[in-house]
Specification:
Layout (H helix, E strand, L loop, with lengths): L8 H4 L24 H35 L30 H16 L3 E4 L4 E3 L2 H11 L29 E5 L8 E5 L1
Antiparallel strand pairs: 1-2, 3-4
């Protein structure tokens, strides 16, 4: 059965906590006074004042030391103005005093290389070594071929033996094989 009286809900609620005000425990108590505000405010004021005094002291100390340092610098030397401010060669790119940008410098270098590849000129005039254009050099190499080492007949081979075969046993073949410690620069003869 539902009650129609909504005005007096607090009296009829069954989920309300029971009255326990009559229970007392002498061992458990709480503070009856609030936290004292005056010492906390005094500490905050003292801390702010100390921070302000220290900041002002550091400011004046900085300026004092800066003035002392500027007064203790030696006078400029008369020869120091004659010295170059740029470091000695080789200079890194993009340092003060380096007039050419690295990309422009690269373009100039490539143009010089292209000009050297496509023109005639002396490499060493005393010994008679000249430079010719690369296209003509390629044509000459194709026409004349590259120089090679003369083939030396291995010891023990006669006139009738083929270059890789020894006279004694036709199954054994002597070959020039690169030696292991030479990385292919020197060869040795091995029978296989």
């Amino acid at each position: 059965m539902a009650r129609k009286d909504h005005g007096n809900q607090h009296e009829d609620r069954s989920d309300e906590l029971p009255d326990v005000s009559y229970i007392t425990n002498e061992d458990v108590q709480h503070e009856h006074t609030d936290v004292p505000i005056k010492p906390i405010l005094m500490f905050g004021l003292f801390l702010s004042l100390a921070a302000a005094i220290i900041s002002i002291g550091i400011y004046f100390l900085f300026h004092l030391l800066e003035d002392r340092a500027s007064k203790s610098e030696p006078p400029p030397r008369p020869l120091s103005s004659e010295r170059s401010t740029a470091p000695p060669e080789p200079r890194l790119q993009l340092i003060p005093g380096h007039e050419v940008h690295p990309l422009d410098e690269w373009k100039l270098m490539r143009a010089g290389e292209e000009q050297a590849l496509k023109s005639f000129g002396w490499v060493d005039q005393k010994s008679g070594v000249v430079r010719i254009p690369i296209d003509q050099a390629k044509k000459l190499v194709i026409q004349q071929g590259l120089p090679s080492r003369p083939q030396v007949a291995p010891e023990g081979q006669g006139q009738g033996a083929s270059p890789g075969q020894s006279i004694g046993n036709p199954a054994e073949v002597e070959q020039e094989i690169p030696t292991d410690p030479s990385s292919g620069r020197m060869t040795e003869r091995r029978r296989q």
